[in-house]
Amino acid sequence: MALDHCPPALRDRLDALLPVVQSPFQTPVKCHVEDWQFEEQKARLRIIQPILEAPKGTAERAERFRIVAATLQAIRSQTVKIPESTLRDWVKAFEERGLVGLLPDQRSDRGQLRVIVTREWDAAIDLPEKACRGISEKLVKFARSLIANDGTAIREVLRLASKELCRLSLEAESKLLVRDLQPLCGLNTKWAERHDLDSYYLIYWKKKDNKKFQDKVPPRVRRGLHPVPMGLLIGDVHYVDILVEEAGEPVRVRLIGWLDASSMFLWVTPVFLSKGKGVIQADVAESLAQVTMCPHGGIPQEYYLDNGGEYSALAGAMQRLSVVAEIDHKVTLAKPYSPTGKGGIEGLFNIFEGILKGLPGWIGGDRTNKKTVNKGKVVEPYRKGLAQLEQDIRDAVAIYNSRPQSAGSRLAGLSPKQMLEAKIKATGFHPRNPDAETFDLIFSQSDTRMVRQGCINVDGRQHHSNCLDGLLPGDTVEVFTPLRKDRGYVFVRTPKKKDIVRIDLLPIFADGNRDGARLQGQLEAGVNRAIRDLSRDIDPNLSTFEAQKAAADMTPPMAPSPDIWTRAIDKTNRPISETDLEEQEDARKRRLLDDLFPRSGDQTSREASDGNR
């Protein structure tokens, strides 16, 4: 402890004692010194100063001990006489340790709870200390659990904990009457502070109010801008708090947003939804196509996407998309239910909403508690039509991109548009823009289809290409259906040719339309052409029978020759024997008799003669 660390007032007093105090700080102080200790140190030094001025071991010093002991002294906010023995202890401590010896000792139980529950309850309860401490532990756990599980307010926790304390006391066999015990069990905010009940709201926020927890509790990592335009593209879907009606029906508005992390430049696609509908993968693909085909956008090096279903299934497609551009690529999905995991786009939408507040129908986030224009009148919905609303939202995006941000922000006083232009100029950035067909190929869903009559059926519609003409009915092909709706084509990869080929939707013609007949002729010509192509690889003179005959072993079995060799029976040229002639004549006569005397009824029946002949 150094003299320079003493308060100025104390140093002034010490200056007068320099002849007396030669080395006042021989022993360092190893603990924290409270203000009240300094005050009492100064008071003790002031009281013994007359004694210190007298030489040691003289009658003068002994006399001064008696004089000071008989005089009233102001110390510890009161006026008292200090016993001579105490004065001698102070002087001895000062002479041995300097000013440190005059510091009063701290309590040995400093920092330890000296109250079990409350002073009133501790003083009046008729239970042993061990039982009291057990009750205190149960009571504290009870109060903390109410806050951690349900977020109960401190005031209500204290009320319920007071009743619990009364119950626990009676359960521990206290002999006090309930009417006497209840006043003793009252708890106040000091008890709550002593047991740090407020800290247990963290558990409640973590389990049941994640938004509040994420907004207020976890530390934030500060991030700068990405060095390269389109080096990182952040995607998210945002809800727009505008009340919209179209034809008397409510319409919900969603924004599919894309943020360039190098400049905070924003692209937005509005999506208008009726009841029961939501943003799907096809909507995200359509929105992303606008960014990738934008002259100052293109294919990013990395995507950082929301964890929603409309994004997560597209991660693989986005990786294939960057393969087309031949660049290193990563896709990162944000941590579920973590707004802080979406980069700067969440905070950006808060800025963007400040612009949207100027539009009619703004309701500020709660459709059940609409803001009012005048007393008793709710906000009128947006009635200019969806086309005008789309244009208003795009204008709001342009306002955001062109409005300078604060000097202390990451853009350092520039607008997102100015920052993007500066980054393009500094890095020599050139966008990687895919054509529409390539984008649809990459952003597609893979499936298998069976070929039927040279076509494949996708969503109930027939698609055909010449690549299918050489396939048999029943062959399966891999089909890639674009996520963007109504593209009029799909892509296939046949089992024979590994290349992916575009096949178009077959049109439907009315009866009598000659264009349909012409197309039918073209389809049949394509099949015939495929057959001719196959025919180039065959020999028309080859016969399966001839090949089988040539492959067969025509030699007889290796066995002894029989006495009579079996030959074919040829009855075509042999003369008829007499026996055969007689049989033929008898058959002719029977046929003649049957014609002359036809038989009636069933001649085999014997019912009339009772079975007798």
CATH architecture of the largest domain: 2-Layer Sandwich
Count of individual beta strands: 16
Strand content: 5-15%
Mind summarizing the main beta sheet?
Answer: 6 strands, mixed
Residue-averaged pLDDT: 81
The tally of domains stands at 4
Fourth CATH level, the homologous superfamily of the largest domain = Ribonuclease H-like superfamily/Ribonuclease H
Say what the CATH topology of the largest domain is. Nucleotidyltransferase, domain 5
| Helix percent band | 40-55%
Classify the secondary structure makeup into a structural class: alpha+beta
> What is the level 1 CATH name of the largest domain?
Alpha Beta
Runs with pLDDT <50, length 5+?
18-27
CA(first)-CA(last) distance: 153 Å
Quickly count the helices: 21
Shape call: elongated
Domain Integrase catalytic: 223-424
GO molecular function: nucleic acid binding
Protein name: Transposase
Region (Disordered): 572-613
Describe the structure.
With 613 residues, this protein is α+β, with helices and mostly antiparallel strands. The chain is built from 21 helices and 16 strands. The protein folds into four domains: 3-102, no CATH class; 119-214, no CATH class; 233-427, Ribonuclease H-like superfamily/Ribonuclease H (Nucleotidyltransferase, domain 5, 2-Layer Sandwich); 443-531, no CATH class. The strands form four sheets. Strands 3, 4, 5, 6, 7 and 8 form a six-stranded mixed beta sheet that branches. A hairpin with a 2-residue loop joins strand 9 (372-374) and strand 10. Helix 2 (35-53) packs across helix 3, helix 6 (129-150) runs parallel beside helix 10 and helix 10 (201-208) crosses helix 11 (210-216). The protein starts with 7 loop residues before the first helix and ends in a 17-residue tail after the last helix.
